[in-house]
Amino acid sequence: MVMKIKEVADIVGISVRTLHHYDEIGLLKPKTNNTGYRLYSEDDLELLQQIMFFKELGFPLKKIKEIINNPSFDRKEALEVHRNMLVEKRSRLDKMIEMINKTIQHVNGEVNMTNKEKFEGFDFSYNPYEKEARERWGDKAVDNSNVKIDSLSDNQQKLLSNKMNEIYRNLANLLEYAPESDKTQKAIKEWYDFLNNETGHHYSLEAFKGLGQIYVADERFTENIDKFGEGLAVYMCNAMEVFADRNKQ
Q1: Cα–Cα distance, 119 to 59 (Å, whole number)
Q2: How many CA atoms lie within 13 A of 138 on its CB side?
Q3: Does pTM surpass 0.85?
Q4: What local confidence, expressed as pLDDT, does residue 31 receive?
């Protein structure tokens, strides 16, 4: 049994644009019929499930592609690893839930919590977004951005956030247009200019293109961006790639 792309998107709960992106980057390439429609087989669905497991555990798409295309890749073994990692993740969540329940009892006066107990389960050892940014663009870029933002007043930071959200909403209103359209490219330039003028760091065209790829590769970014419109993260990624490639010339 084969399925069309819309059927697959509805079953999985992801956008058609995301599946298009997976095809474009060679992560999941279904067969096409004579009219060019993508047709997904049972094997494609099994592979997609595997991809979604990796995404749930925070693997970037580039790494997922490397793993599943490796001749030594063993699906059963990978599923067992996924299970073990999810069990560990569940254990951490269980500890957090236990702490919350105890905190509620403490608020109700049923138990007493020490200051140490109030913070068990939290891990503030690193910021995952900052860690990834440092790895991709170096400490200087992140430090400059932090200094820039920290130097702003609360009102200035709020204005900055509002401006950023306005750009997201504007791009979300353009989802019906192709990423390479003039309207979309004008809007994505506003995003490029915003990052370079407001974050305290100059993004090269290559770094800007790489940032767009993170929007799709990292589900944390995808989830936040797609709040403005389903498929916006992939749309921005494609538009940022077009912008970077065009302006290199």
Answers
A1: 28
A2: 8
A3: no
A4: 93
Same domain, 117 and 132: no
What is the DSSP track for the chain? Answer: --EEHHHHHHHHT--HHHHHHHHHTTSS--EE-TT--EEE-HHHHHHHHHHHHHHHTT--HHHHHHHHHSTT--HHHHHHHHHHHHHHHHHHHHHHHHHHHHHHHHHTTSS---TTGGGTT---S--HHHHHHHHHH-HHHHHHHHHHHHTS-HHHHHHHHHHHHHHHHHHHTTTTS-TTSHHHHHHHHHHHHHHHHHSSSPPPHHHHHHHHHHHHH-HHHHHHHTTSSTTHHHHHHHHHHHHHHHHH-
119 and 186 both lie in a single domain:
no
Which residue type does 150 have? D
Tokens of 56: 């749930």
Domain count, the chain: 3
Residue 35 structure tokens: 């009219």
Helix 232-248 and helix 16-24: axis angle, to 10°? 40
How many angstroms separate the CA atoms of 95 and 122, rounded? 9
Same domain, 49 and 12: yes
Encode pLDDT of 160-174 as tens digits.
Answer: 788 888 999 999 999
Q: Tell me how far apart the alpha carbons of residues 223 and 125 are, in angstroms, rounded to a whole number.
A: 23
